[in-house]
Amino acid sequence: MSAQWFLFLLSFVLAFLMHFAAVSTLTHTIIAQNNNTIITGDRLALLGIKSMIKDDPQGVMTSWNHSTTNFCEWQGVTCSPRHQRVTHLNLSSGGLIGTLSPSIGNLSFLREIRLSNNSFSGEIPPEIGRLFRLQQLRLYNNSFMGNIPEAITNCSKLRVLILGSNNLVGKIPDGIGSLSMLYILGVKNNILEGGIPPFIANLTLLEMLTFDDCQLGGSLPDVFQRLTNLRILDMSGNNLIGTIPPSLYNCSSLEIVILGNNQLTGRLH
Ligand SMILES: *[C@@H]1O[C@H](CO)[C@@H](O)[C@H](O)[C@H]1NC(C)=O
Ligand SMILES: *[C@@H]1O[C@H](CO)[C@@H](O)[C@H](O)[C@H]1NC(C)=O
Ligand SMILES: *[C@@H]1O[C@H](CO)[C@@H](O)[C@H](O)[C@H]1NC(C)=O
Ligand SMILES: *[C@@H]1O[C@H](CO)[C@@H](O)[C@H](O)[C@H]1NC(C)=O
Ligand SMILES: *[C@@H]1O[C@H](CO)[C@@H](O)[C@H](O)[C@H]1NC(C)=O
Ligand SMILES: *[C@@H]1O[C@H](CO)[C@@H](O)[C@H](O)[C@H]1NC(C)=O
Ligand SMILES: *[C@@H]1O[C@H](CO)[C@@H](O)[C@H](O)[C@H]1NC(C)=O
Ligand SMILES: *[C@@H]1O[C@H](CO)[C@@H](O)[C@H](O)[C@H]1NC(C)=O
Ligand SMILES: *[C@@H]1O[C@H](CO)[C@@H](O)[C@H](O)[C@H]1NC(C)=O
Hints:
By secondary structure, this protein is α/β, with parallel strands linked by helices. The chain has three helices and 17 strands. The structure holds 2-acetamido-2-deoxy-beta-D-glucopyranose (9 copies).
């Protein structure tokens, strides 16, 4: 065989081998990617949430990276054992600074969102209204602004709704009166409009109701006769006028009542 022929054959074999290696790597990558995206759009939604975090000084989200680790093991993430879908997101007291990505609405198995004690600003994404399994939404002590989204009244299984100590404005949506499973409703320390919503009469499972320091006006509605589970009521630091409604005296489950710093008049029975 001539040297030319030998070189020709050698380069042919090499090219073949390289082509095969490239195709096999590519195929492998595609399978791995499909496994992550098709089986678990949750991974993308979580990375969407991370992408809106501007600063994470405590490194709470360091484990949320593109390496092959299962997202169910990322810090603050809990999955259902069977479906491997995200059910709990707990990033409380994480020192996080940023906004909350609308992609949270794609975590359709979520039951609890705990983001209290961080520095989230921007609006509460209305996409949360797509989370029909949601039972707890805890956003206490952030800098969320804008209105309380009407869309969260879609989350009919909500039991705990804590929005206190943010910069929320506007009216409390009437639809909250249809969240009949609520037992904790806390909106204290926001800049709200209007009065104490009469729909609280519908929330018969309520145990804790805090509307303190919200700049609410009007009188206290006489709606406490049906709130037979109410233990804690705080409406202090508003602009409430008028007298204490008779039904409040009948509310025998009450343990703590705070109504100070208003313009209530009349005698206590
Ligand atoms: C797909 O993911 C499952 C569980 O996360 C893993 O056991 C399996 O090996 C992965 N398959 C491929 C082809 O990557
Ligand atoms: C990615 O996450 C893994 C698992 O938590 C961690 O060991 C690793 O240091 C992280 N990698 C980077 C680049 O942050
Ligand atoms: C949520 O995370 C914080 C911080 O890691 C932790 O202290 C707290 O116990 C967690 N809460 C729940 C209900 O898991
Ligand atoms: C928020 O911070 C306060 C004060 O540090 C602490 O008492 C409270 O337990 C924290 N709440 C959560 C949910 O982390
Ligand atoms: C939610 O998922 C859908 C389809 O899987 C995708 O098209 C959409 O961009 C996602 N939305 C967000 C906000 O990530
Ligand atoms: C609010 O959260 C910050 C951390 O972001 C914490 O230092 C502060 O004590 C919290 N305040 C309350 C009233 O819980
Ligand atoms: C609320 O639910 C209704 C009816 O199921 C649906 O049409 C609407 O898109 C939902 N809103 C949001 C923000 O998910
Ligand atoms: C109370 O609930 C009933 C039935 O669910 C509903 O028709 C009514 O509009 C609610 N009232 C208020 C004030 O939300
Ligand atoms: C308080 O309870 C008594 C006895 O159950 C009842 O007769 C009265 O009508 C109630 N008053 C109000 C304002 O609900």
